[in-house]
Backbone:
């Protein structure tokens, strides 16, 4: 697998105008669906995911295994408003490492949406799902302290890192937590229109250190991302050398 790290510098004003015009801005100001739509409009099936939008100053980062020349060709075909909103004139990319050592330590940061699906198909906050049925679930659910959530969310993250033995968490802390509403569109109805919904859930950033398990599985984890909603700004695993700022 040949993975590349892409960087785009969306124009904050143009992005806000485009998202508002197309009614793709959530009530909480989340740009996840708007950026998903812009990337899909530009790159089609090759739209990079997972991605992480770091704001107007730092821009958007994404992983892709697609051919870079084809991505550049598609970018040149984008309409002017899409190109301005995404900053396609300054699309930058570099090869990302793929050779990892078993036991190698790396610093990481990940914005994730720790949710689980119940048997009836509904999506639950992993914290709420964990406390259902416990003796003191009412008390815990009522308090919902950051410390309690952190333990459950970290366990959720550990399980996803551990898929196929990809990695283990060496240490991690919950850097930020909030409940946000994100825009999603349901399947097409009988009239062909897709109903827009605002789904509330946990919006969490973890920072810490991980230890590489199986290098091949770790590469798959990077390419796939962590958890659900990976096409909408969640799940990208950002890496850095241990000890860096």
Residues:
């Amino acid at each position: 697998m040949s993975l590349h790290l892409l960087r785009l510098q969306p124009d904050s004003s143009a992005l806000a105008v485009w998202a508002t015009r197309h009614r793709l801005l959530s009530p909480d100001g989340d740009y996840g669906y708007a950026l998903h739509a812009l990337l899909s409009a530009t790159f089609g099936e090759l739209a990079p995911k997972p991605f992480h939008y770091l704001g107007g100053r730092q821009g958007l980062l994404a992983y892709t295994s697609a051919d870079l020349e084809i991505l550049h060709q598609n970018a040149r075909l984008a309409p002017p408003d899409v190109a301005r909103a995404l900053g396609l004139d300054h699309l930058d990319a570099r090869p990302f490492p793929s050779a990892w050592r078993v036991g190698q330590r790396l610093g990481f940061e990940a914005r994730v949406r720790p949710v689980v699906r119940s048997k009836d198909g509904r999506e639950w906050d992993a914290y709420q799902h964990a406390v259902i049925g416990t003796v003191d679930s009412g008390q815990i659910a009522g308090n919902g302290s950051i410390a309690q959530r952190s333990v459950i969310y970290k366990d959720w993250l550990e399980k996803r890192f551990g898929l196929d033995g990809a990695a283990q968490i060496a240490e991690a802390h919950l850097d930020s937590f909030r409940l946000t509403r994100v825009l999603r569109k349901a399947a097409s109805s009988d009239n062909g229109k897709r109903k827009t919904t605002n789904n509330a859930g946990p919006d969490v950033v973890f920072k810490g250190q991980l230890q590489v398990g199986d290098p091949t599985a770790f590469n798959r984890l990077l390419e796939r991302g962590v958890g659900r909603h990976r096409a909408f700004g969640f799940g990208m695993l950002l890496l850095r050398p241990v000890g860096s700022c």
Observations:
- The helical segments are 12-21, 32-43, 68-76, 80-86, 126-131, 137-143, 146-161, 215-224.
- The longest helix spans residues 146-161.
